[in-house]
Amino acid sequence: MRLGIISALAEEQQGLVEAMRGPATLIHGKRAYTLGQLWEIDAVCVLSRIGKVAAAMTATTLVEKFGVTHILFTGVAGAGDKTVQVGDIVVAEALVQHDLDASPLFPRFEVPLTGLSHFQPDPQLSMRLSRAAHDFLEQDFLDAVGEGERRAFGLLQPRVHRGLVASGDQFMTDRAHLAGLNAALPGLVAVEMEGAAVAQVCHELGVPCAVIRTISDNANENAAIDFMRFVKSVAAQYAFHITRRVCRD
Ligand code: ADE
């Protein structure tokens, strides 16, 4: 196995490159790819930057140039449903591009000429992620996230959810927009800006992938402020400990 690990921003992957044995960094397509041994696993870490094109370019490069056999996307997301709270963890069971609409030529959300709207991540890798997320919450959480942060973000008993993740080239800050998506996409648990693009690339190249997201905001009018605060002080702890557990599993 050679695992490609993608995040949009540095805070969503902080500490992983530092934890690598024998790291070597290569620049390609204006991104830094760091190869090395991450705990038990041969890995390549990279920051995609934000958005579906950036993520698709990065995933393609990981497979075609760096020979990864699996891809893991780790980062934050907005809550896609009222049952999902800030600090909860979401493992994607399916991914859809919520801003893709070529109707009336093709059904809303369908990727034209593929017959597909939803892409499924790899069940085994996703199961490994779910286990790692549960173990993180049970065993690492209280040590990893300080009391001040837990209180500031109201992180009482974070939970792990499995469900539909919707990606689009929009930072969601509108309650009504989210409600519309929620009605159109049953099982929606999170909104973000990269996962479904990575899932489509991986589907087309035949590479297993999985997506895990920590909820940073409620995708409403406060989303930008909540997102910035969460990314600055909490996101890295989740990403580091969960990835460590996945690699050691
Ligand atoms: N990632 C984190 N929060 C988000 C939001 N509200 N919209 C899109 N992507 C996000």
TrEMBL record:
Quick check: keyword Hydrolase in the entry? yes
Q: Give the matching Gene3D superfamilies.
A: Nucleoside phosphorylase domain
- Nucleoside phosphorylase domain location is 3-245
A Pfam entry, by short name: PNP_UDP_1
User: What organism does this protein naturally occur in?
Assistant: Telluria aromaticivorans
Superkingdom, taxonomy of origin? Bacteria
Task: Tell me the GO molecular function terms.
Answer: adenosylhomocysteine nucleosidase activity; methylthioadenosine nucleosidase activity
EC numbers, comma separated: 3.2.2.9
Keyword annotations of the record: Glycosidase, Hydrolase
Any keyword Ligase? no
Name assigned to this protein: 5'-methylthioadenosine/adenosylhomocysteine nucleosidase
Q: Looking at the UniProt record for this protein, which Gene Ontology cellular component terms does it annotate, in alphabetical order?
A: cytosol
Which GO biological process categories is it annotated with? L-methionine salvage from S-adenosylmethionine; nucleoside metabolic process
